[in-house]
């Protein structure tokens, strides 16, 4: 039997890293779009997208800014556009849902629970900030949580999934998140084959150890049997090591400057596409075939770009 095709997701900018941390992190709409298009050309089948304020790069939920990002990507590539419903821990649920509800994309991300999401240690690594908001946002995570209550998740599943046909990248930062997903599956709010993103290495979630990845995989096997797809996200320096393990055990992979700013020890990645090309080299060495956007749509049973408002 042929090995399954591997979907590469590229998370282009996120809301964790700030402009001071890398000159290559895109935050203006035109730069996010350009790097997303380049990542798709390099082999990313799914583009996981956040928006940033064009004036200073802070995370933004503004649908108008999202439109400036989504339209040129959709015009230049057939990649699956996956809009975050996570946004930032400082945004309300209504703010986080504003853009995806307007765009009605094929995919959205969905964090599977409330959690401590500690970014504050990053503030100690830098001295001269480009913008005043950067250390303030990082430090704010010391005393706040990322909120996704069961009610919040129900709202996302109903308003985007049931009402608009979006499928989800279920982001599971710990084992309990898998049980929350199984709960929604048992209630019928999650239908079809779920696409689970194992997220390792975020402070407040499960650690970035290969044994933890295998524990997440074994737990998902018990809860979902063979009826799920999974991908692996390793935060920071753990990125390539963990996603390589994930691909070797039958999973998909996620790269991108949202998750990791580096291409190697002490070497900043110059673009998202650089990380896509790097994992492609590894997947080629493992004799694994890369999924096209059409393959990803078939594997994940997506509704297709014609059924969106992008």
Automatic annotation (TrEMBL):
- Per its Swiss-Prot or TrEMBL entry, what cofactor is needed? Zn(2+)
Coiled-coil regions listed? none
The protein in question is named 3-keto-5-aminohexanoate cleavage protein
What domain of life?
Answer: Bacteria
The family database entries (InterPro entries) matched by this protein are listed as: Aldolase_TIM (IPR013785), BKACE (IPR008567)
Please tell me the species this chain comes from: Tistrella arctica
Keywords carried by this UniProt record: Metal-binding, Transferase, Zinc
